[in-house]
Structure to design on (125 residues):
């Protein structure tokens, strides 16, 4: 791989980071009464996606890695629902929803692929 190419894990982390910044950007304009409910919950779950993934990546034992990746995926599903919820409540525009959904779909597929790959390697040992 040359320096111009991006490996799978780096791309996944980059997309997760982009999604976190997207969520922080769109939640700045939420109604004040949502500050301590959907805003804090969506931000927390979205940060948990990338933080659990990074922590799992840093662990040496495959079963521990898998646990963190699964936690990351659970947080991802929570965050993705809050994207939908925010759109249905008209807290975010259609354009933002479409952008966030496209990003979330790619993250979800890549993260699920990582989990499956790790599970298969664990089963071989």
């Amino acid at each position: 791989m040359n320096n111009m190419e991006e490996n799978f894990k780096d791309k996944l982390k980059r997309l997760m980071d982009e999604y976190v910044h997207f969520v922080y950007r769109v939640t700045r304009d939420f109604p004040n009464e949502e500050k301590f409910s959907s805003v804090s919950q969506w931000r927390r779950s979205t940060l948990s996606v990338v933080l659990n993934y990074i922590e799992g990546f840093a662990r040496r034992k495959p079963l521990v890695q898998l646990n963190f990746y699964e936690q990351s995926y659970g947080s991802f599903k929570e965050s993705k629902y809050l994207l939908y919820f925010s759109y249905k409540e008209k807290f975010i525009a259609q354009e933002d929803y479409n952008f966030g959904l496209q990003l979330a779909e790619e993250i979800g597929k890549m993260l699920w692929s990582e989990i499956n790959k790790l599970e298969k390697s664990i089963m071989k040992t």
